[in-house]
Amino acid sequence: MHSIYSSHGRISKHFKLITSSSSFLHLLNFSTDLQPHFMVDYLITSLKLSKPEAVSVSTKVRHLKSPKNSQLVIDFLRNYNISESEIKSIVLSQPNILLRSVDKTLVPKFRVLSELGFSAQDLVVVIKRDPNILVRSLHTSIIPTINLLMKILGSKENIVKAIKKSHWPFYGKYFRTNVLLLERYGVSSKDIQRVILRNPRLVTQSPVRLEAKIVEAEREFGISPGSSMFSYGLSAFCSLNSLNLRKKFEVFKSFGWCDSDIFNIVNRQPLCLTHSEERLKKGLSFFMRELGYTSLWLSTRGCLLMYSLEKRVKPRYKVYIVLKEKGVLAKELHSVMCLSDADFVKNVVQRYKEEMPDHLYDSSTKSINL
């Protein structure tokens, strides 16, 4: 056996030669690594990336031998009317997109999403929100996820609606867990659909937080998972932290509301809590100070606080008070406010046209396309 040491304890010349050669090769490779990658110039020219951005991207695609495939990818994205700034953003966040085959990877993905019901413009929005979809596996990620969503949401239309309301990965790591959590609390499949379609982000949060909000909604305001208001209540409570909730309650209390009145309105119309404090104040001021209704009366008619004062409540109130004073209208105020625009015009305005001043009739019908 040859020793790397000589009989005098010195490193042999043979070993010195080997190590010297290895060091030289290492330095040669290191020197080569420091040479600018051809992709740097290409990215600066084609996408107007800054040099640091181009260098960063090029390190992720170093084994490319030419920019040919990258150009095919960029042209494909341009053909979908994705803007230059958006393509730049996609490449910066997902450099590996430049390695993908247009025919084998991108075209099949876009075809599947188009068949699902996404328009070309929808696809642009989805990709802008989550460029990761371009590098996810079609067969092990995208299609299985679509199948899962179909099982839960029931139709392609619902899947598209939910995804357009959120990021593509709204089904993320917590999605399955949160759906199972809702089922465990007795939420029906129909109500789970409502929860997701109303606010897909509700099922992306931590299961611990979601469960806490479910418990809070039932414990504090009697909105149980079996309630018709559950999807609305969960949406409201998940969108507010304890500080914001307390501020909303203080608004009601500033108008003389007691805890039982607040309980009643939240139980019946939890989404009223999602309005700004200023909007709540204006609504309460109109119904209580201008019209003289009590908190007890208003707490059982929370829908009145959901409508726009300027676009719906005040214009309809003008019609209501004229017809009430003439004794021809039997409907109560909240019933008039809850009618659809078409039903309001048909069953109130047109029905009692002769009892109304012309200007009031005209203003009540001009914005409705019958």
Your description of this structure?
One of its GO terms (molecular function) is nucleic acid binding. Keywords: Transcription, Transcription regulation, Transcription termination, Transit peptide. It holds the Pfam family mTERF. Belongs to the mTERF family. By secondary structure, the chain is an all-alpha fold. Among the domains are: 1-35, no CATH class; 172-239; 241-300, no CATH class; 309-365, no CATH class. The chain is 65% helix and 0% strand. It has helices spanning 13-33, 38-47, 51-60, 68-79, 84-93, 102-116, 120-129, 138-153, 156-165, 175-184, 189-198, 207-221, 230-238, 242-254, 259-268, 277-290, 295-299, 309-325, 333-338, 341-349, 358-365. Helix 11 (189-198) packs parallel to helix 13 (230-238), helix 12 packs across helix 13 and helix 14 packs parallel to helix 16 (277-290). The chain starts with 12 loop residues before the first helix and ends in a 5-residue tail after the last helix. The relative contact order is 0.04.
